[in-house]
Backbone:
C-alpha cells in the first residue's frame, strides 16, 4: 500500500465535519467554490489538492499548514513522521546503493504485529516499548524500526545480529530468522 495514500486516509478518518469545513474554508483561494462545496470527505479534498499540485508525497507544507490552522497537532505529527521516514529512506538509498538488505530492513518488513513479542524476547524494557508505541501508533513498520533502534541503543556494543536471530527463533519467527541469516 502506498504510504502517502495511507497517510491521507489516516488524516481523513481523523477529521470531524467541522474540521473538514475549516480546511475547505482555508482552501477557498486555491479551489473554486463549487468544487469545494461538493467535498464531503478529507480524501476528496486531498485529491483536489493533489490534482492542483498543492500537495504530494514530497510536498507537504500546505497540508501541514492546514492541520496546524485547525489545531490538529496529532494529525500534523503523522505528517511529520511520514516526512522523517521518507527522508531516512532517501538517505539510506543514497548511502547504500547495493541490493543487500540489512537485518533491520528484513525484520521491519516481516515481523509485523509480533514486534513487541520479539522486543520482549530480546529483553527490551516495557517502558521503552510503550514509548515507541505511543510515538508511532499509526505506523507499524516504523514502530518495529524504532523498537529495533531502541534495542540497539540499549545494548550498545553488545547488540549483535546473532541475538536478533536467536530472538526471532525464540518467538517462532523462523522464516524471518532464516531471511536475516541470508
Residues:
Amino acid at each position: 500500500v502506498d504510504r502517502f495514500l495511507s497517510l491521507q486516509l489516516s488524516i481523513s478518518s481523523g477529521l470531524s465535519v467541522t474540521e473538514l469545513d475549516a480546511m475547505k474554508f482555508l482552501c477557498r483561494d486555491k479551489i473554486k467554490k463549487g468544487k469545494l462545496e461538493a467535498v464531503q470527505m478529507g480524501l476528496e479534498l486531498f485529491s483536489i489538492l493533489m490534482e492542483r499540485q498543492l500537495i504530494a508525497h514530497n510536498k507537504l507544507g500546505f497540508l501541514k499548514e492546514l492541520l496546524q490552522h485547525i489545531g490538529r497537532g496529532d494529525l500534523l505529527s503523522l505528517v511529520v513522521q511520514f516526512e522523517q521516514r521518507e527522508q531516512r529512506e532517501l538517505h539510506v538509498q543514497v548511502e547504500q546503493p547495493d541490493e543487500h538488505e540489512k537485518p533491520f530492513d528484513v525484520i521491519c518488513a516481516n515481523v509485523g504485529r509480533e514486534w513487541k513479542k520479539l522486543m520482549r524476547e530480546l529483553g527490551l524494557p516495557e517502558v521503552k516499548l510503550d514509548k515507541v508505541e505511543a510515538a508511532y501508533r499509526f505506523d507499524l513498520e516504523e514502530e518495529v524500526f524504532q523498537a529495533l533502534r531502541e534495542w540497539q541503543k540499549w545494548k550498545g556494543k553488545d547488540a549483535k545480529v546473532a541475538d536478533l536471530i536467536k530472538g526471532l527463533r525464540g518467538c517462532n519467527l523462523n522464516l524471518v530468522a532464516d531471511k536475516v541469516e541470508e
